[in-house]
# Entry
Amino acid sequence: QVQLVESGGGLVQAGGSLRLSCAASGLTLSNYAMGWFRQAPGKEREFVARISRSGSTTYFADSVKGRFTISRENAKNTVSLQMNSLKPEDTAVYYCAAVATSGKVTMPQLYDYWGQGTQVTVSS
# Structure
């Protein structure tokens, strides 16, 4: 049974930082590209970042480029999202997801597995 479990969310002031982690089990992580998405109340789930199977290629939404970084440790079955210079508009539930398809996969419906999400709240 595949499980993705996010952690690291919380409440932070604008300008602060958080590091989200995603622990994977039940799959060989190196076979999947990994993505982070977020969903704010009343809004659709949106792409945040993606990292290739090996970790050599990353891709970010324009809204977070330069502020967020994504990394992975396949040996530990973990993926992380470092979020710096946080803004109130970054407030959302953040989800990690796994996709077997290569390329710049940004559409959530193409991802194969999802975590349950972790809340990030940025106060102004």
The longest strand covers residues 18-25.
